[in-house]
Amino acid sequence: MSAGTHAVGGYVDGHGTRMQGLAGLVTGAGSSGDFLGTGAATALLLAAQGATVGLLDVSEERADHTRTLVEDAGGKAVTLVADLTDEDAVRDAVDAFALTAGRLDAVVNNAGVTPNGDIMTATRADWDRVFAVNATAPMLVSRAAHPHLVRSGGGAIVNVSSIAGLRGFGTGAYGASKGALQSMTVDLAYSWGPDNIRVNCLVPGHLYTPMGDQGGAGGRELRRKANYLGREGNAWDLAWAALFMTSPESRWITGTVIPVDAGTTASTGLGMLARLSAPAPENGEQA
To answer: Are 168 and 158 a contacting pair, CB within 8 Å?
Structure first.
C-alpha cells in the first residue's frame, strides 16, 4: 500500500494501541490500487491502532479493496455502501456499523468531490452536487452518528475540509462547500459539547493523492514550493492528524479548524515569492 511510501503510517510505523477497543467510521474510504487517498489512509491507520473501522463509500468494490488492505495489515474493517446524499441510506449504514461493532466512537467525514468549472462555467447541477457531497453529506452522517456516539459516552467527529475553503483558487463550489463545512464544524462543536462529542475540522493543503494529483511533475513541484517546509505531503500526513483528533489524546480539543498544510495558508503570495526568489544558501548553510 502506498501514499508516497509503502508501510501503514507512511514515514512512521502506524501500528499501536491508541484506538484499542474503539470503533471509527470513515467516509470516502474506498481505494483502488496502491495509491491511497486520505480516506483509505485514515481507515488503515485507525485500524492499525486497534479500532474496528467502518469503510463507508458509494462503491462497494473500492470499499472492499480498502478492507482487504486493512485485513492484510492485521486490522478489522467492515464494508459499508451508501450514497452519502441519501439520508435513509446513510442512517441505515451508520446504524448497521454501530450494531456490528457494538459501539461508535469516532467519525471522519472525509468524502468529497471536485466541481466541473468555476462560478461562471459550472452548471447549477454541478454546484448542487458538490454541496450535497461536501457539505450536506457530512451533516447527514454526523446526525445519524449522534445517538450512537452518545450511547458510547461521547466521541469525536473530524470533518475534512480544504485550504480552498480558506483561500481563493478559483474552485467555485468546492471552496464554498469546504468553507461551509468549517462553519458547520464550529456550530456542531457548540451544540454537541454537552453530549461529550468533540467536533473538529482538518484543512489539508496540497497533498499528493489521487484527487490532488494534478498538473503532472510540474504541478507537484509547484505545490511543494508553495509551503514553508518545501516538502510534499501525502495522505498519511492527513491520516496522522485525523488519528490524533479522533483518539482520547485530544479529549480537550473541540471547535477547531486546523490547517494540515506545511504552512501554506500561513503566508502570503508576496512572502512566498520573496522566499523563492532569494538566492540559495551556499556551502550547505541553512537559510
So the answer is: no
- Rounded CA-CA distance 32/54 in Å is 17
Mean pLDDT within 105-109? 98
Residues 43 and 66 sit within 8 Å (Cβ to Cβ): yes
Domains of the chain: 23-277 (3.40.50.720)
Grid cell of 231 as nine digits = 516538502
Q: CA 245, CA 240: separation in Å to the nearest integer? A: 9
| pLDDT for position 5 | 47
The confidence score (pLDDT) of residue 213 equals 67
What residues are labeled active site? Answer: 174
For 249, phi then psi, to 5°, come to -65, -25
Contact 82, 58 (CB under 8 A): yes
**Which stretch of DSSP H or E encloses residue 41?**
helix 38-48
